Request: fold
Amino acid sequence: MNEMKFSKKHEWIKLDGDSATIGITKHAAEMLGDIVFVELPENGSSVEKDGNAGVVESTKAASDIYTPVSGQIIECNQSIVDDPSKVNSDPENDAWFFKLKIKDKSELNSLMNKEEYDKFAKEN
Amino acid sequence: MEIQKTALYEYHKNLGAKFVPFAGYQMPVQYTAGIIEEHKLTRSKAGLFDVSHMGQLFAEGGSELSIELEKIIPIDLKKINLNQSKYSFLINDTGGIYDDLIVTKVKKGFSIILNAARKENDYKIIKKALGDKFKLKLYKELSLIALQGPKAEEILENLIKGVSLLKFMNGNSFSYNGNEIYITRSGYTGEDGFEISLSNKIVESFAKILLSKGAQPIGLGARDTLRLEAGLCLYGHDINETTTPIEANLKWAISKRRREEGGFLGYKIIKSNINGHLSRLRVGIKPSGKIIAREGTKIFSLDENVIGLITSGTFGPSVNGSIAMGYVKYDFAKPGTNILLEVRGKKYQASVIKLPFYKKKYVR
Reply:
């Protein structure tokens, strides 16, 4: 599976073997407005599905970032910490948030595909 | 109460505004450019703001009115010149601030601009203080727009001859297509600019002309980052009924004669503040990293005792970094003092700095 999957909390996840890359959707970035601060989880830390895995702040407010699946953080994208505006310009590609080693692949089953997410985002 | 709309609601909608409820009004927080871009456009060109939610109060009367108003507003209303504006406060009996406002001396009395969330309450307080002797009216048929930025003068002078002659914090009546409009050289962004009071009937067409001459529509989001960079207070956040103007570091907004003579509500406390009985002071705060310290963030001394609270904090697009203001214990108010800010359970280094974060020269 190379296609992206999406969570109801507006994160995307892209699988690569046993690990996955996670970021926030274009829709989420647009809703948040200009992003000026990013805090990412610590390398090596364990995160639980739908649990807290970072913070983004716009000029107006702070918002928590959640992980759509459980696992252990193996890499964080320092470039979005250094330049948070990248999250607005390229949220679903270069501005990924972190990579993790997936604990339980069955957790992916509850996520949406692109078509389902687009419909969900429109309604929410 | 049903949410209200300004006369420019459809104009905002057509420009792609994102709306938020603010002080009972549906207001544009940003347009399609976004807060950071709108902020920068105001600093580099000219931004157009709808501030029609603010109260436009007129009090009619002569020197007797000045005497009565001086009991609740601590500025020198005897010395104010015709068409001159002054920043001041509606003060309460403990020296706290009911509202911050701009008073302008006009031909028949005074025009007072009030905060949206406070205007109804202010009206009651002023009405009670003045009694029935003076005519008092909160104008709902007038809109208020602000044109701010280095290109504001050129754009407005093109439409209305003579506005370029206005000095900072001075105004006058002008005529536009047979309509009387009142313009002051003032604003709340740290830029040169104008505030234009005009009929609800012509505000949309006037705003559209300003846009066609190069002004950019700017929402309340950028208004907030602009005023914070300029070190200006937001009522209900940086000042309220429990903060005195002296604690808020706004002593300059109480006229010298009034500071010495008193004769206004809360003077005892304010005088004592001035004489050095001051436990806290509003200061500028610069976090050392990118961390943003929002309203309510606790401030600590380096030995980790609580010494104050952040009242406003955001990202300043022109200073390209995190900025904040808050109250600290008086001993920690000196610029250069190192402090700690607690955000999401972790402490971050910051320092007290002299306001404003961003400074521009005004036309005087």
In short: Chain A has a mean pLDDT of 95. The first strand of chain A starts at residue 4 and ends at 6.
